[in-house]
Write a structure and sequence with these properties.
The structure is a single chain. By secondary structure, the chain is α/β, with parallel strands linked by helices. The chain contains 36 helices and 34 strands. The protein has an eight-stranded mixed β-sheet. An eight-stranded parallel β-barrel has the order 27-28-29-30-31-32-33-34, surrounded by six helices. The radius of gyration is 32 Å and the shape is elongated.
Length: about 900
């Protein structure tokens, strides 16, 4: 815990710097850094993230007492720097109060602007600036923000409009005006009065007139917003720890709402959706920052190029664009020139794409924020590879810049081009976040989450989104908004989540109470299907067929770069040639788990399988197995052929036998006729297979030990398939894996059966080929006795699903009945079936690898549980000395990137 709680910045000086983001938050650290590199930033100070921790440990009053002297000194410094005084009507200083965690959390916490206004100060501000409209507009904004954030003035019901917006609409309707900036001074004064009355009526609190009281209320509200529902959910979705806390930055206000020479905007040094190296962003004249990001007004483009692209998408003529929607580049060329120079300077300084906020006050440009911009998976890869080619970053940095899980977005389906030819386009908006989304319309975040939980695919349709909608945005396939631009909350959050989003579709009219959306006279109800193309901004009627994504050149370049550094290779879990082919196209170098039981569920196979299980004698069982052998062999030919020259690890039959037998009378009758026995006999045999705890019963190697003929048949099918391919001139590399071994004696017995069957096949075929026999380490005892097991195993494959289950004593199928309580009580940080438990299960893995290598130095070790595609688990496997991880086909690129990152991190 740092003793220093407050860090000041301003006038080209700063007590902090960029590498202090853990203490000052991203915003505070970058405000300090911008001061140090000569970017114009209003003076201010940052209260550290440590104080946020103190706020929750010691309470509001204790923290205010701890901060009081430091905050007063820092406010005095702001006053001295700009020559204004906080709370002085004759020369008033106003401030903004903003949140800023070390990880960017756009819109999740609270901000308050224009703080320091009261009935006396507003009159002084009007007189000082000779601009009453600006002064009263700032006051009504402040009362609105403070009333919402600090005093809790929010909609009572989800289908209610914001209470402040309802009052604004009421006042605007008196004169029939449409836009907020058309309100005159008297109407703004009326709004302030009505706002205060509404706050008193709904919350029971008077609006505070003392600027010092306002300041402490705002600071504490920002700390309080760290634990609001949307911030908690955002952290959960993005793996941000609750104990990081947020910093609070207090800055002198600069005003974008002072008239025609003032403006506000948000810009990006590159396209956050596509990664294109083009400066872009949005601005509004005579406005404040919240107007741009909230989506209340659809803003204009910053660059001329961007403005022309926007006009083309919206069907706006060049003449109309130029007169009604000019770019900042055209409207304020000198400001634009300076803005463009600074954005380029900041990108080169941080060596990454920047997301920046700025204000223009009467022709003077001020920067309020810069941060590494949120981006889509496509943009992430392109920007990293472009910065590498431009010499801004090196190869290792390019690898580290990419988040493994975001690669998943590049593999999402896209709309089928043929299907689009027969699709009705309803309308179009801005292509805020790429992708293809099809689903049923819902209008509220909680409904989106509920429908999703019930198995529906949904598209959330809103007038505009707010941070409160995060849960719904997370659950939805895509988001469609009537208002808002490319930098609105919906657009920024959707890009960060990899969600398809079309924003600013001005031709849609949403009625929350009726739960309908009207598009060009056509009415759609909740539950109707629509489709969104986030890459073009088009909105289609109904469901549109999709097809697999096409992997881009930049993606392939990144994967090639990963291969240059990685030590841990990636195989796939695949049971069919199709899955194997997909994984191979994504760079898998073999199969780490082929589950033979998944091959038995086709009609003819299941009959033969059931016949084998229900047989009473070894002779009858062998007859049934003789039917299965050619069917199994055909399956193995397909997979081994697909993976020609690469290892294919085939697990012998693992699940309990009762999973294969018919439990319904119809199925039992069919088997009775097939086998020529009574249905009663079938029922008795089925009943005899039932177990109290089947996952710990007759499964895995126990099946092969009780019925060695099963192991024999599978071995002959595997090796027979391999020899067939070898005769064709191919190079099959089969590996036979014995599952669920707990003692070396089990493996020893099964290996004897395998080797005997292999000799028979080789004799029958007149040809031999090399193959390996290994085992799954999925029982804690196997890990602890790995040295003995390695005497008989040529490789270990860690089945971390079962190993987790048996180490914790948690049923994988039933953990959800208590997992939420364990997570909320901090007993567990994550679901151990999704993220490998490195402290417990991981130690068993490391121990087994070490002991296994002591016995057999050339022992190959891999992991084939679901953890094989989870980035932090992959990195652990690298550190534990494993040779490969294996995961589902669509996780292969994610695992490859994580493995490369692990090697890069180790080299530092």
């Amino acid at each position: 815990m740092s003793e220093k709680r407050v860090y000041t910045f301003g006038n080209g000086k700063a007590e902090g710097r960029a590498d202090m983001r853990n203490l000052l938050g991203g915003k505070g650290a970058n405000l300090a850094e911008m001061n140090l590199v000569g970017v114009p930033v209003p003076p201010g100070f940052t209260i550290t993230t440590d104080v946020c921790t103190e706020y929750y440990e010691k309470g509001k009053d204790a923290v205010v007492a701890l901060l009081k002297d430091d905050v007063e000194r820092s406010m005095k410094l702001i006053e001295d720097t700009i020559g204004k005084k906080f709370g002085d009507p004759s020369n008033p200083l106003l401030v903004s109060v903003r949140s800023g965690a070390r990880a960017s959390m756009p819109g999740m916490m609270d901000t308050i602007l224009n703080l320091g206004l009261n009935d006396e100060v507003v009159e002084g501000l009007a007189k000082k600036t000779d601009n009453p409209h600006f002064a009263w507009d700032s006051y009504r904004r402040f009362v609105q923000m403070y009333g919402d954030v600090v005093l809790g003035m929010k909609p009572v019901n989800k289908d209610d409009v914001d209470p402040f917006e309802a009052i604004i609409e009421q006042v605007k309707s008196q004169r029939g005006i449409k836009l907020d900036y058309e309100l005159n001074v008297e109407e703004l004064q009326q709004l302030v009065k009505l706002f205060k009355e509404a706050i008193k009526k709904q919350t029971g609190s008077d609006f505070p007139s003392d600027p010092v009281e306002q300041l402490w209320g705002a600071i504490c509200a920002v700390f309080g917003s760290w634990m609001n529902k949307r911030a908690i959910l955002y952290r959960k979705l993005n793996g941000i720890p609750d104990d990081w806390g947020t910093a609070v930055s207090v800055m002198a206000m600069v005003y974008g709402n002072m008239g025609e020479t003032s403006a506000t905007g948000v810009c990006f040094s590159r396209d956050a959706a596509t990664g294109e190296n083009i400066f872009n962003g949005e601005w509004l004249k005579n406005a404040q920052g919240e107007d741009v990001v909230s989506g209340v007004r659809t803003p204009q483009q910053i660059t001329l190029e961007g403005s022309r692209r926007w006009a083309e998408l919206q069907g706006v003529s060049e003449e109309e664009r130029k007169s009604k929607y000019p770019s900042l580049e055209e409207e304020m060329p000198e400001v634009y020139k300076q803005l463009n120079e600074i954005q380029d300077k900041l990108e080169k300084h941080y060596h990454d794409m920047q997301d920046m906020e700025f204000t223009v006050q009467e022709g003077k440009l001020w920067f309020l924020q810069t941060r590494n911009g949120k981006r889509t998976g496509t943009a992430m890869v392109k920007i990293a590879m472009d910065l590498l080619k431009e010499g801004e970053i090196d190869e290792k940095t390019a690898i580290e810049r990419c988040e493994p899980n975001k690669l998943d977005e590049l593999l999402h389906p896209i709309f089928d081009k043929e299907a689009l030819k027969h699709t009705h386009t309803l309308t179009h908006g801005l292509p805020a976040s790429p992708g293809a989304a099809t689903g049923q319309i819902v209008f509220f975040a909680d409904d989106a989450a509920k429908w999703h939980a019930d198995g529906h695919k949904v598209v959330m349709v809103r007038i505009e989104t707010s941070p409160e909608d995060l849960a719904g945005m997370s659950a939805a396939e895509g988001i469609l908004t009537a208002r808002g631009g490319m930098t609105s909350h919906a657009a920024v959050v959707a890009r960060g989540m990899g969600k398809c989003c079309v924003s600013g579709a001005g031709n849609i009219h949403v009625d929350y109470k009726k739960r309908t959306v009207e598009i060009h006279g056509q009415v759609f109800h909740e539950g109707d299907y629509i489709s969104l193309n986030g890459s073009t901004g088009q909105v289609y009627e109904g469901e549109v067929k999709t097809r697999p994504a096409e992997v881009s050149g930049y993606f392939a370049e990144l994967m090639d770069l990963c291969d240059k550094y990685t030590k841990l290779v990636v195989r796939t879990n695949a049971d069919t040639p199709h899955d194997a082919e997909v994984a191979k196209s994504f760079g898998a170098v073999g199969i780490g788990l082929c589950r033979t039981e998944h091959m038995f569920f086709e009609a003819e196979k299941i009959k033969a399988m059931r016949e084998m299980i229900l047989a009473d004698t070894t002779e009858d069982r062998e007859k049934a197995l003789a039917k299965l052998l050619p069917l199994q062999k055909k399956d193995f030919v397909g997979i081994l052929k697909c993976m020609n020259g690469l290892p294919v690890n085939i697990r012998l039959l693992d699940p309990p036998l009762h999973e294969f037998v018919p439990h319904d009378e119809k199925g039992q009758k069919i088997m009775a006729e097939e086998m020529g026995v009574s249905i009663q006999k079938i029922k008795e045999r089925v009943a005899s297979l039932e177990e109290h705890n089947p996952m710990l019963g007759l499964r895995g190697c126990r099946l092969g030990i009780k019925f060695p003929e099963i192991t024999k048949m599978q071995t002959k099918a595997i090796l027979g398939a391999a020899i067939e391919l070898k005769k064709q001139g191919l190079d099959p590399k089969p590996e036979i894996m014995v599952p669920l071994v707990g003692t070396y004696k089990e493996l020893k017995l099964q290996k004897e059966v395998i080797n005997k069957a292999a000799k028979e096949v080789f004799a029958e075929e007149g040809m031999e080929l090399p193959f390996k026999v290994g085992t799954m380490i999925e029982i804690p005892r196997a890990a602890l006795t790995a040295d003995k097991i390695a005497e008989y195993a040529e490789y270990f494959s860690f089945g971390t699903n079962d190993l987790t289950q048996m180490t914790f004593g948690y049923s994988r199928d039933d953990i959800n009945s208590f997992l939420p309580s364990y997570l909320s009580n901090k007993i567990l940080d994550v679901d151990p079936f999704q993220v490998l438990d490195q402290e417990g299960v991981g130690q068993l893995v490391k121990f087994a690898v070490k002991k296994g290598h002591e016995t057999r130095p050339d022992l190959k070790c891999g992991i084939c549980g679901e953890h094989g595609g989870e980035p932090s688990s992959v990195k652990f496997c690298h550190r534990a000395g494993l040779d490969y991880v294996s995961c589902s086909p669509f996780r292969v690129p994610i695992a490859r990137l994580a493995a490369a990152q692990a090697a890069v991190e180790e080299s530092k």
